[in-house]
């Protein structure tokens, strides 16, 4: 039976590139995609347990290490791999301590990412990334709602309030309320500062 692999990342271009990379290396694999944590959990309900779950840390719905621990407990036989821009050694250590099998930085070459995935699937416990030199910032507050994280992610992509409203099918007025509450929650003075905090947090 073909192995089942879930690729969970909210950036469509990276997710597509990773999917093609894994397909090339494991042509017989059955690969599914998810763009947020709810979609991952939906793929786990009532289905065959995945052979491998590849997960980004900067991910809608994923707000704390406790959720990574819960995934490990729920999927004891699944190979769990984080592929992320994170380069904070302490945070990476926490990921591995949560029981994940490997950590791969997004800033290494696609061929290296693919080979690292294969090695981890074969049982090697692997941490592979290139430090970016960026200073780590404070983590995002765990109390942010899923909707606030969605708004924050779109702010980080440079979207205007009108564009965010269209993307989330809500009114611009509601977006303004979310933005105001985000600035207070993050303790930052501007959208730009919120975007920087989001980009560096995970």
Automatic annotation (TrEMBL):
<dbReference type="Pfam" id="PF00072">
    <property type="entry name" value="Response_reg"/>
</dbReference>
<feature type="domain" description="Response regulatory">
    <location>
        <begin position="4"/>
        <end position="121"/>
    </location>
</feature>
<dbReference type="InterPro" id="IPR011006">
    <property type="entry name" value="CheY-like_superfamily"/>
</dbReference>
<dbReference type="InterPro" id="IPR058245">
    <property type="entry name" value="NreC/VraR/RcsB-like_REC"/>
</dbReference>
<dbReference type="Pfam" id="PF00196">
    <property type="entry name" value="GerE"/>
</dbReference>
<protein>
    <submittedName>
        <fullName>Response regulator transcription factor</fullName>
    </submittedName>
</protein>
<dbReference type="InterPro" id="IPR051015">
    <property type="entry name" value="EvgA-like"/>
</dbReference>
<dbReference type="InterPro" id="IPR036388">
    <property type="entry name" value="WH-like_DNA-bd_sf"/>
</dbReference>
<feature type="modified residue" description="4-aspartylphosphate">
    <location>
        <position position="56"/>
    </location>
</feature>
<keyword id="KW-0597">Phosphoprotein</keyword>
<dbReference type="InterPro" id="IPR000792">
    <property type="entry name" value="Tscrpt_reg_LuxR_C"/>
</dbReference>
<dbReference type="InterPro" id="IPR016032">
    <property type="entry name" value="Sig_transdc_resp-reg_C-effctor"/>
</dbReference>
<feature type="domain" description="HTH luxR-type">
    <location>
        <begin position="137"/>
        <end position="202"/>
    </location>
</feature>
<dbReference type="InterPro" id="IPR001789">
    <property type="entry name" value="Sig_transdc_resp-reg_receiver"/>
</dbReference>
<keyword id="KW-0238">DNA-binding</keyword>
């Amino acid at each position: 039976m073909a192995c089942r692999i879930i690729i969970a990342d909210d950036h469509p271009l990276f997710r597509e590139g990773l999917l093609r990379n894994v397909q090339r290396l494991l042509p017989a694999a059955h690969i599914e995609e998810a763009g947020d944590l709810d979609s991952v959990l939906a793929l786990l309900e009532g289905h065959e347990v995945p052979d491998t779950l590849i997960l980004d840390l900067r991910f809608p719905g994923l707000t704390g290490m406790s959720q990574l621990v819960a995934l490990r407990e729920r999927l004891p036989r699944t190979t769990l791999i984080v592929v992320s821009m994170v380069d904070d050694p302490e945070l990476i250590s926490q990921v591995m301590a949560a029981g994940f099998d490997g950590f791969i930085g997004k800033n290494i070459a696609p061929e290296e990412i693919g080979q690292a995935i294969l090695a981890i699937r074969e049982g090697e416990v692997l941490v592979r990334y290139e430090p970016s030199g960026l200073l780590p910032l404070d983590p995002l507050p765990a109390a942010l709602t899923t909707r606030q994280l969605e708004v924050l992610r779109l702010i980080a992509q440079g979207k205007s309030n009108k564009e965010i409203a269209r993307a989330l099918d809500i009114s611009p007025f509601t977006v303004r309320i979310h933005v105001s509450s985000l600035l207070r929650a993050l303790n930052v003075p501007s959208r730009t500062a919120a975007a920087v905090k989001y980009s560096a947090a995970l």
